[in-house]
Amino acid sequence: MTSPDLPEGILRDLLASPDRAATPGQPPICSLNGEEDPHELAAWSPWIRERLQLSRRGVDHGEWLILTEDAVPLGPQPPIEALWEQHWFEARPIPIRGWAPTVPIEDCMAWHGVLRRPKGLRAFLSERSGALGQTFAPGSNMHLADPHRDLERIRIGSDHDLWVKLGRLSAHDQDHSLRVRHSFGKEIVDDASRDIEAHRLVAEMAEILWPIAARFPKQDEWGERLVRWIEQPVLRTQHIAYFNAPEGGALWHHDAFDEPLEGGQRGVLYVQLAGRTAWLACSIDALCKRMQEFLEYLAEGELPWVLAESLPGAGALDGLIKLSERFPRMRRELGRPGGGAFGPLLGRGEFSALCADAGHAYLLEPGDALLMPNHGLERTVMHSVFCADPHVTLGLSMALREDRPAPVPEIRRHVPGARRSRRGPRRRV
Ligand SMILES: [Fe+2]
Questions:
Q1: How many other C-beta atoms are found inside a 10 Å radius of the C-beta of residue 191?
Q2: Distance, CA 300 to ligand 1 centroid (Å)?
Q3: Is the pTM of this model over 0.70?
Q4: Is there a contact between 152 and 120 (Cβ–Cβ < 8 Å)?
Q5: What's the gap in Å between 425 CA and the centre of ligand 1?
């Protein structure tokens, strides 16, 4: 259903398409391919908030058209509680506008400036040593697991195996993005640990280093919903601060672990604190459908340069089409690091445009949050992130954990060699 005032044409048909995902309260976003009728576009000007050019690590992801919320009135919707519950249990992203306090952009830039310098993390922690006290005093430097992206990892305190790590998001020379992880134990092996006491200490440490995190609402309507859906009080932990800079962001990935649902990591909450980020986010099933559509276009001879550049080998497209015939296999493949065999297509700007047109694009402004439910590897939110400003931005993500998890099921604990690991990329790339 569209307003009768809206201009007729391709754009209106696309925005009103019944199979386009649409979320109440969100500005509609679609892509522009440069071939739009200028008269049609001009007629939309009362509803156009912004045109946003996206680029990540030298790859052009096209231009997005950000419209006003009233540009495309949604058809009949279920009551809002039912809608959010549906999003939660179907592992669809839940955008929450204006949920959190914000950080002045000057602070974001100053912190990024400190962290970018040699031994930047050491300096950042030293500036906060008074607040960290003896319990969380910075200690020795630790081993770096990823020599290409990790910059510093510093032990925190002496009793609990806590650490803070500074890393780059990519080795691209134009991408000055940084991230600061807060966790404990062995990297990768303990990422999904259910040691709730250690998780509480990580949360305490992170809220000292990022005091704004202690001011995020806890007992509000979203806090109540999470308790209802997870059936437990919820602990926010394993914070990651993201300084997404121009040309930065994250490739498509999920944040789920290969673990039993109960007692595990139940979702991730990302909060935009300064500047803006652009997101593509949808359930892993929706991403499968979008990829199937993309493969159909390619098979019909559309976008021939995509095939030539990304799938040059004979039979490469047929191989992917075969792989996409079975949803379970396709889900597994898309969830692998870098999207597995689908990686060359997932990272294309043309695929980003298709996903935006399907209604999976979000623009997060300071104070906005994005809730990403996890119900295991087969029911999780896939997401891809871009910097949406010409300067560095800041966001903070937190893992949502059951505050009183049941013990790990015996069957998992005693299977020889069984370890809670992920088939997908390391959590929150
Ligand atoms: Fe993530």
A1: 21
A2: 33
A3: yes
A4: yes
A5: 10
